[in-house]
Amino acid sequence: MKYIWFFVAVLMVVSCKEEAPVDYAIISGNITNQVGELTINSADRLIKKVMNVAEDGSFTDTLRVKTETYILFDGKNRASVYIDAGNNINVSYDANDFENSLIFSGVGSEISNYLFSKEKKEKELSVNGTEVYELEEIDYKANFNKIKTALTEMITSFEGISEEFKVKEKRNIDYAYLNKISIYERYHSHYAEKPDFKTSEGFLNELEGLSYDSEEDFSFSQSYKSMVTSHFNDEAAKLVETDSIAEDIAFLKVVGAIQNDVIKNNLLVDNAKYSVTYTNDLEAYYSEFMKVSTNEDNNKLITESYNKLKTVAKGQPSPQFDNYENFAGGTTSLSDLKGKYVYVDVWATWCGPCKREIPFLQKVEKQYHGKNIEFVSLSVDKLDDHNKWQEMVKEEELGGIQLFADKSWESDFVTGYLIKGIPRFILIDPNGNIVNSNAPRPSESKLIDLFNELSI
Predict the structure, then answer these.
(1) Which bin fits 292, alpha (ψ -120 to 50), beta or left (φ > 0)?
(2) What is the DSSP string of 394-434?
(3) Counting Cβ atoms within 10 Å, is residue 266 exposed (0-12), middle (13-18) or buried (19+)?
């Protein structure tokens, strides 16, 4: 009898082990005409997983990530992949015919197939590029209403997807439409070249009553998250006007008052990752962030940035660049320019705001030609875009010292200043010490004021 009970006990132990929750997903597949690496990135880019593709095009990996939509990227093609614990997803496609060959299969692949079909439908129904923002109000709304209707019908009839996901996705589709309505005024003003444009009365009625405190929608829908972010940016702008405080500090104060910790901490860290590197008052910004943030991981991340940024404060020795390729020939190091002020423009050929500064930079360069200052433009273009850099420097007749960073965003000078966004302007004194690690842009009159203060 005791043997029977022993056997039952063993079965119970085995059964318990079988029922233990799976906390990982498996993604594998085969790609033709592609050898190298694949990356899986989260929407916020905080999670990045690199997977090696074998010579025969096969790959496989185990992922321990939170449930959400990720971007699969092979360097040329990208696709959305929805990953949940317990999934075993197989991906196959021809890298030279991606749109027509991509197939997801296996356990949990249905949502990824839906997302791919959704993206194709949106492309099919969308007006080309930025032309959609030139449409008048009626046509603009009709365009995105058409897309919303088509996508809602698609998710309703798509097989193999849970009703729970469908309900959330229908809200996501609606939020995407509302988000397009909310941005129309400023986008139409820009692309239709109507600087004084205002939407007509009633155009924004569909946004009335929208709440900004849904944790579920914030975590699921990028469109909802975008509208929540815009809403609190608007609230911060009001605080700037009433309390006369810096915009970055105002944002922290407004978001810090949000009751939902998930929304609050997410907005805070998303903002701080970049704003802490641009703020004009590092101490005040960091102090306010730490006062309102309640997420220890976020606090640790921003504290690391804060400690690093203190090393590039005014008066500190500047991080160096050594032997960077000079368009004029040879290489140049920061130490070669010692004895003069150095105004560094960190830019890239693909960066619109960077290119908008070029005419202003050229004007300042001309104004200070022969003075005790060198103007250095440091490209962080990838090596693959080296020719684009050379062509642009030549075609635009860019002046000053034109350098190509050795490792793009991973270059020592860039990481030394914790640069997260461009354009970025830096002023260094003749001794190689930092005057301003966030110097005014060439388009700002404050730059000339600064030069005058220094008697350049």
Answers:
(1) alpha
(2) HHTT--SEEEE-TTGGGSHHHHHTT--SSSEEEEE-TTSBE
(3) buried
Tell me how far CA of residue 261 lies from CA of 33, 256, 268, 269, in angstroms: 46, 9, 10, 12
CA distances from 147 to 136, 206, 316 (A): 17, 16, 54
Q: Radius of gyration (Cα) for the chain, nearest Å?
A: 26
Residue 209 Cα to chain centre, angstroms: 29
Which CATH class for the 25-109 domain? mainly beta
Written as tens digits, the pLDDT of the chain (456 aa) is 444 454 445 445 545 445 556 788 999 999 998 767 888 888 767 678 888 888 888 999 998 878 888 899 988 888 899 998 899 999 999 999 998 999 999 999 999 999 999 999 999 999 888 999 999 999 999 999 999 999 999 999 999 999 999 999 999 999 999 999 999 999 999 999 999 999 999 999 999 999 999 999 999 999 999 999 999 999 999 999 999 899 999 999 999 999 999 999 999 999 999 999 989 899 999 999 999 999 999 999 999 999 999 999 999 999 999 999 999 999 999 999 999 999 999 999 999 999 999 999 999 999 999 999 999 999 999 999 999 999 999 999 999 999 999 999 999 999 999 998 999 999 999 999 999 999 999 999 999 999 999 999
Q: Is 192 helix (H, G, I), strand (E, B) or coil?
A: coil
- Of the CATH numbers 3.40.30.10, 2.60.34.10, 3.40.50.300, 3.50.50.60, which one belongs to the domain with range 324-453? 3.40.30.10
- What gap in Å lies between CA 232 and CA 238, rounded to an integer? 10
Q: Calculate the alpha carbon distances from 90 to 28, 30, 79, 87, 113 in Å.
A: 5, 8, 13, 10, 11
DSSP characters for 68-104?
EEEEEE-SS-EEEEEE-TT-EEEEEEETTSHHHH-EE
Instruction: Identify whether the C-beta of residue 58 lies closer than 8 Å to the C-beta of residue 32.
Output: no
Task: State how far the alpha carbon of 124 is from the alpha carbons of 118, 151, 166, 429, in Å.
Answer: 10, 12, 22, 54
Q: Give domain limits for the chain.
A: 25-109, 324-453
Element (H, E) at 64: none
